[in-house]
Design goal:
It comes from Gordonia polyisoprenivorans. This is TIGR03084 family protein. One of its GO terms (molecular function) is metal ion binding. By secondary structure, this protein is of the alpha+beta class. The protein folds into 2 domains: about 150 residues, dinb family like domain (Four Helix Bundle (Hemerythrin (Met), subunit A), Up-down Bundle); about 90 residues, Nonspecific Lipid-transfer Protein, Chain A, CATH 3.30.1050. It has a 4-stranded mixed β-sheet with strand order 4-3-5-6. A two-stranded antiparallel sheet has the order 1-2. Helix 1 runs antiparallel to helix 6, helix 1 runs parallel beside helix 7 and helix 7 packs across helix 8. The longest helix is centred in the N-terminal third of the chain and has 23 residues.
Length: about 270
Protein backbone atom coordinates (compact mmCIF):
# COMPACT_ATOMS: atom_id res chain seq x y z
CA UNK A 1 0.00 0.00 0.00
CA UNK A 2 1.37 3.42 -0.96
CA UNK A 3 1.80 6.18 1.59
CA UNK A 4 -0.92 8.13 -0.21
CA UNK A 5 -3.30 5.22 0.34
CA UNK A 6 -2.31 5.04 4.02
CA UNK A 7 -2.99 8.75 4.43
CA UNK A 8 -6.35 8.46 2.68
CA UNK A 9 -7.38 5.56 4.91
CA UNK A 10 -6.36 7.41 8.06
CA UNK A 11 -8.19 10.55 6.92
CA UNK A 12 -11.35 8.49 6.38
CA UNK A 13 -11.04 7.02 9.88
CA UNK A 14 -10.54 10.48 11.38
CA UNK A 15 -13.67 11.72 9.62
CA UNK A 16 -15.66 8.73 10.91
CA UNK A 17 -14.39 9.16 14.48
CA UNK A 18 -15.32 12.83 14.44
CA UNK A 19 -18.73 12.13 12.90
CA UNK A 20 -19.56 9.61 15.61
CA UNK A 21 -18.92 12.19 18.34
CA UNK A 22 -20.68 14.94 16.43
CA UNK A 23 -23.75 12.70 16.32
CA UNK A 24 -23.67 12.33 20.11
CA UNK A 25 -23.40 16.04 20.88
CA UNK A 26 -25.68 17.07 18.04
CA UNK A 27 -28.79 16.16 20.01
CA UNK A 28 -27.96 17.37 23.52
CA UNK A 29 -29.48 20.39 25.25
CA UNK A 30 -27.64 23.62 26.00
CA UNK A 31 -27.71 22.70 29.69
CA UNK A 32 -25.96 19.40 28.90
CA UNK A 33 -23.20 21.24 27.05
CA UNK A 34 -22.29 22.83 30.38
CA UNK A 35 -22.01 19.52 32.26
CA UNK A 36 -18.63 18.80 33.89
CA UNK A 37 -16.79 15.86 32.33
CA UNK A 38 -14.45 13.42 34.12
CA UNK A 39 -11.55 15.66 33.06
CA UNK A 40 -11.19 18.10 35.98
CA UNK A 41 -12.52 21.61 35.19
CA UNK A 42 -13.51 20.64 31.62
CA UNK A 43 -17.14 20.74 30.49
CA UNK A 44 -18.51 19.27 27.27
CA UNK A 45 -18.14 22.80 25.88
CA UNK A 46 -14.42 22.66 26.66
CA UNK A 47 -13.95 19.20 25.16
CA UNK A 48 -15.44 20.20 21.80
CA UNK A 49 -13.65 23.57 21.78
CA UNK A 50 -10.37 21.70 22.31
CA UNK A 51 -11.03 19.41 19.33
CA UNK A 52 -12.07 22.31 17.09
CA UNK A 53 -9.05 24.38 18.07
CA UNK A 54 -6.48 21.65 17.52
CA UNK A 55 -8.03 20.52 14.24
CA UNK A 56 -7.62 24.15 13.19
CA UNK A 57 -3.99 24.24 14.33
CA UNK A 58 -3.25 20.98 12.51
CA UNK A 59 -4.73 22.45 9.35
CA UNK A 60 -2.61 25.59 9.86
CA UNK A 61 0.52 23.46 10.29
CA UNK A 62 -0.22 21.78 6.96
CA UNK A 63 -1.28 24.86 4.98
CA UNK A 64 1.07 27.46 6.48
CA UNK A 65 3.89 25.83 8.45
CA UNK A 66 5.74 29.13 8.92
CA UNK A 67 2.64 30.80 10.33
CA UNK A 68 2.09 27.84 12.64
CA UNK A 69 5.70 28.04 13.84
CA UNK A 70 5.31 31.74 14.62
CA UNK A 71 2.16 31.03 16.60
CA UNK A 72 3.79 28.13 18.46
CA UNK A 73 6.88 30.13 19.31
CA UNK A 74 4.78 33.02 20.61
CA UNK A 75 3.18 30.92 23.36
CA UNK A 76 4.71 31.54 26.78
CA UNK A 77 3.23 28.32 28.21
CA UNK A 78 1.71 25.55 26.11
CA UNK A 79 -0.25 23.86 28.90
CA UNK A 80 -1.72 27.18 29.95
CA UNK A 81 -2.82 27.70 26.36
CA UNK A 82 -4.36 24.21 26.17
CA UNK A 83 -6.32 24.72 29.39
CA UNK A 84 -7.43 28.16 28.26
CA UNK A 85 -8.99 27.18 24.94
CA UNK A 86 -12.36 26.36 26.51
CA UNK A 87 -12.68 29.49 28.66
CA UNK A 88 -11.51 31.64 25.73
CA UNK A 89 -14.49 30.41 23.72
CA UNK A 90 -17.03 30.35 26.54
CA UNK A 91 -19.24 32.86 24.74
CA UNK A 92 -20.23 30.34 22.07
CA UNK A 93 -23.34 28.21 22.48
CA UNK A 94 -23.18 24.46 22.14
CA UNK A 95 -24.56 24.61 18.59
CA UNK A 96 -21.97 27.24 17.68
CA UNK A 97 -19.18 25.11 19.17
CA UNK A 98 -20.35 22.12 17.14
CA UNK A 99 -20.56 24.19 13.96
CA UNK A 100 -17.03 25.50 14.63
CA UNK A 101 -15.66 22.01 15.08
CA UNK A 102 -17.48 20.69 12.02
CA UNK A 103 -16.01 23.49 9.87
CA UNK A 104 -12.49 22.99 11.18
CA UNK A 105 -12.70 19.23 10.80
CA UNK A 106 -13.79 19.60 7.19
CA UNK A 107 -11.03 22.15 6.52
CA UNK A 108 -8.50 19.75 8.03
CA UNK A 109 -9.74 16.97 5.75
CA UNK A 110 -9.24 19.27 2.75
CA UNK A 111 -5.73 20.17 3.89
CA UNK A 112 -4.82 16.50 4.38
CA UNK A 113 -6.09 15.61 0.91
CA UNK A 114 -3.96 18.37 -0.63
CA UNK A 115 -0.81 17.62 1.37
CA UNK A 116 2.26 15.75 0.15
CA UNK A 117 2.05 12.33 1.84
CA UNK A 118 5.77 12.63 2.64
CA UNK A 119 5.48 16.01 4.38
CA UNK A 120 6.86 16.49 7.87
CA UNK A 121 4.23 18.36 9.88
CA UNK A 122 5.53 20.94 12.39
CA UNK A 123 4.02 20.62 15.83
CA UNK A 124 4.69 21.60 19.44
CA UNK A 125 7.36 18.91 19.70
CA UNK A 126 9.42 17.38 16.89
CA UNK A 127 7.91 17.44 13.37
CA UNK A 128 5.67 14.47 12.63
CA UNK A 129 4.97 12.41 9.54
CA UNK A 130 1.55 13.03 8.04
CA UNK A 131 0.27 9.53 8.96
CA UNK A 132 1.45 10.02 12.55
CA UNK A 133 -0.21 13.44 12.78
CA UNK A 134 -3.54 12.08 11.52
CA UNK A 135 -3.30 9.12 13.89
CA UNK A 136 -2.75 11.53 16.77
CA UNK A 137 -5.92 13.40 15.79
CA UNK A 138 -7.85 10.10 15.77
CA UNK A 139 -6.55 9.31 19.27
CA UNK A 140 -7.42 12.77 20.59
CA UNK A 141 -10.89 12.70 19.06
CA UNK A 142 -11.61 9.27 20.49
CA UNK A 143 -10.23 10.11 23.95
CA UNK A 144 -12.07 13.40 24.35
CA UNK A 145 -15.13 11.70 22.93
CA UNK A 146 -14.89 9.17 25.76
CA UNK A 147 -15.07 12.00 28.29
CA UNK A 148 -18.22 13.28 26.59
CA UNK A 149 -19.74 9.80 26.40
CA UNK A 150 -19.01 9.15 30.08
CA UNK A 151 -20.62 12.45 31.03
CA UNK A 152 -23.79 11.67 29.11
CA UNK A 153 -23.94 7.98 30.07
CA UNK A 154 -23.50 6.91 26.46
CA UNK A 155 -21.90 3.52 25.78
CA UNK A 156 -20.06 3.72 22.46
CA UNK A 157 -19.59 0.62 20.35
CA UNK A 158 -15.83 0.22 19.83
CA UNK A 159 -14.60 -0.01 16.26
CA UNK A 160 -11.49 -1.13 14.40
CA UNK A 161 -10.32 2.49 14.61
CA UNK A 162 -9.08 1.55 18.09
CA UNK A 163 -6.10 -0.03 16.37
CA UNK A 164 -4.76 3.48 15.75
CA UNK A 165 -5.22 4.42 19.40
CA UNK A 166 -3.64 1.15 20.52
CA UNK A 167 -0.62 1.69 18.30
CA UNK A 168 -0.02 5.17 19.67
CA UNK A 169 -0.35 3.77 23.18
CA UNK A 170 2.33 1.18 22.47
CA UNK A 171 4.66 3.65 20.76
CA UNK A 172 4.26 6.06 23.69
CA UNK A 173 5.93 3.60 26.09
CA UNK A 174 9.00 5.81 26.53
CA UNK A 175 6.89 8.98 26.67
CA UNK A 176 4.95 7.56 29.61
CA UNK A 177 8.12 7.38 31.69
CA UNK A 178 9.57 10.67 30.44
CA UNK A 179 6.39 12.51 31.40
CA UNK A 180 6.95 11.34 34.97
CA UNK A 181 10.64 12.26 34.94
CA UNK A 182 11.60 8.59 35.06
CA UNK A 183 14.24 6.72 33.03
CA UNK A 184 12.83 4.53 30.28
CA UNK A 185 13.27 0.84 31.17
CA UNK A 186 15.35 -1.20 28.76
CA UNK A 187 12.86 -4.06 28.96
CA UNK A 188 10.52 -5.01 26.11
CA UNK A 189 6.81 -5.38 26.86
CA UNK A 190 4.70 -7.63 24.67
CA UNK A 191 1.20 -6.29 23.96
CA UNK A 192 -1.56 -8.57 22.68
CA UNK A 193 -5.04 -7.13 22.24
CA UNK A 194 -8.34 -8.56 21.10
CA UNK A 195 -9.92 -6.36 18.46
CA UNK A 196 -13.49 -5.11 18.93
CA UNK A 197 -14.82 -7.72 16.48
CA UNK A 198 -13.65 -10.44 18.89
CA UNK A 199 -11.78 -12.27 16.14
CA UNK A 200 -8.71 -10.26 15.19
CA UNK A 201 -5.72 -10.04 17.51
CA UNK A 202 -3.37 -7.07 17.40
CA UNK A 203 0.10 -7.52 18.84
CA UNK A 204 3.33 -5.61 19.27
CA UNK A 205 6.69 -6.93 20.41
CA UNK A 206 7.98 -10.43 21.07
CA UNK A 207 6.27 -13.02 23.26
CA UNK A 208 9.55 -14.29 24.69
CA UNK A 209 9.86 -11.65 27.44
CA UNK A 210 8.47 -11.80 30.96
CA UNK A 211 6.55 -8.54 30.67
CA UNK A 212 3.24 -8.40 28.84
CA UNK A 213 -0.13 -6.67 28.60
CA UNK A 214 -3.07 -8.69 27.29
CA UNK A 215 -6.77 -8.03 26.97
CA UNK A 216 -9.39 -6.14 25.03
CA UNK A 217 -8.20 -3.31 22.82
CA UNK A 218 -10.91 -1.13 24.33
CA UNK A 219 -9.51 -1.57 27.84
CA UNK A 220 -5.96 -0.87 26.68
CA UNK A 221 -7.03 2.30 24.87
CA UNK A 222 -8.95 3.50 27.92
CA UNK A 223 -5.86 3.05 30.10
CA UNK A 224 -3.24 4.58 27.78
CA UNK A 225 -5.42 7.65 27.18
CA UNK A 226 -6.02 7.84 30.95
CA UNK A 227 -9.78 7.51 30.61
CA UNK A 228 -9.87 4.51 32.99
CA UNK A 229 -7.77 3.37 35.90
CA UNK A 230 -6.18 -0.02 35.30
CA UNK A 231 -8.21 -1.44 38.20
CA UNK A 232 -11.43 -0.66 36.32
CA UNK A 233 -10.47 -2.84 33.35
CA UNK A 234 -9.90 -6.52 32.69
CA UNK A 235 -6.36 -6.14 31.33
CA UNK A 236 -3.92 -8.88 32.32
CA UNK A 237 -0.55 -7.33 33.14
CA UNK A 238 2.54 -9.43 33.89
CA UNK A 239 5.99 -8.24 34.93
CA UNK A 240 7.22 -5.31 36.99
CA UNK A 241 7.97 -3.06 34.01
CA UNK A 242 4.60 -3.72 32.39
CA UNK A 243 2.87 -3.01 35.70
CA UNK A 244 4.71 0.28 36.15
CA UNK A 245 3.97 1.27 32.54
CA UNK A 246 0.26 0.63 32.90
CA UNK A 247 0.18 2.68 36.10
CA UNK A 248 1.55 5.77 34.30
CA UNK A 249 0.69 5.06 30.63
CA UNK A 250 0.21 8.25 28.62
CA UNK A 251 -0.48 8.17 24.90
CA UNK A 252 -0.40 11.94 24.57
CA UNK A 253 2.49 14.40 24.82
CA UNK A 254 2.94 16.98 27.53
CA UNK A 255 3.11 16.93 31.33
CA UNK A 256 1.64 14.07 33.38
CA UNK A 257 -2.06 13.73 32.68
CA UNK A 258 -4.90 13.69 35.18
CA UNK A 259 -5.53 9.99 35.50
CA UNK A 260 -8.90 8.60 36.59
CA UNK A 261 -9.37 7.23 40.10
CA UNK A 262 -9.69 3.49 40.78
CA UNK A 263 -13.35 2.65 41.19
CA UNK A 264 -14.46 5.78 39.34
CA UNK A 265 -15.98 3.59 36.63
CA UNK A 266 -17.29 0.05 36.59
CA UNK A 267 -15.16 -2.73 35.15
CA UNK A 268 -15.21 -2.48 31.37
CA UNK A 269 -16.95 -5.23 29.46
CA UNK A 270 -15.52 -5.76 25.96
CA UNK A 271 -18.17 -4.96 23.39
CA UNK A 272 -18.45 -6.51 19.95
Amino acid sequence: MSKADVVAGLAADLAEEAASLMEIVGSISEAQWALPTPAPTWTIHDQIAHLANFDALTRLALDSPDEFARFRDSLPDLQEYVDGVGPANAGLTGVQKLDWWRRENECLATAIAAADPDVRVPWFGPPMSLPSKITARIMETWAHGQDVADTLGVVRTPTARLRHVSRIGVLAFANSFRAQGLPTPDVPVFVELTAPDGDDVWSWGEKSGADSVRGAALDFCLVVTQRRHLADTDLQVSGAVAEEWMSIAQAFAGPPGRRRRPGQFTVATPLG
